[in-house]
What does this fold into?
Amino acid sequence: MLPCTHKSHVFLVGTTETLNPGVNDVKFRRSIQRLSRKRPGLTLDAVMNGAARVLTNMRKFDRGMTHARRNDLHWLDVPDRVKYRLCVTVYKCLHGMAPQYLSDLCTPVAEVPGRQRLRLADRGQLQTPRYRLTTSGGRSFTCAAPSIWNALPDYLKDTALSLSYFEKQLKTFLFSRY
It folds into this structure.
């Protein structure tokens, strides 16, 4: 039988994966609605802090929660988790492992007519469409995913990388910026 901390860790990882809006919109909305009725203002960051307190035996107002989440538990912060999930989704789109409707949104510059000879085409860049709505246009998958993908270093955009190796290197890259 696993110690209590491992069960909690598995529960949290499973919960945050099911609460991922890019994977399961209906479950995400229902779970957030249930949680927000119980505690208004509850965010994924608050849930992760609570789970980190349980796993590291910290109290609510102890200092060093960020340090514990990053160094002891090896968890990314919420904005970096979003970037991680978007990059993995783009990787799957480019390698034929994602649904077709998502793959159609990730167009390499090398496949756009008239842009094959640009330097961007050699670097594995994706075409970033223009958008008009400043409130939500840049946050849509169509715009955000290519922008984040284009910001990655070239060694991560190598087409020969396997999915597991890409995920490992991406997480290492995101942790190196802390």
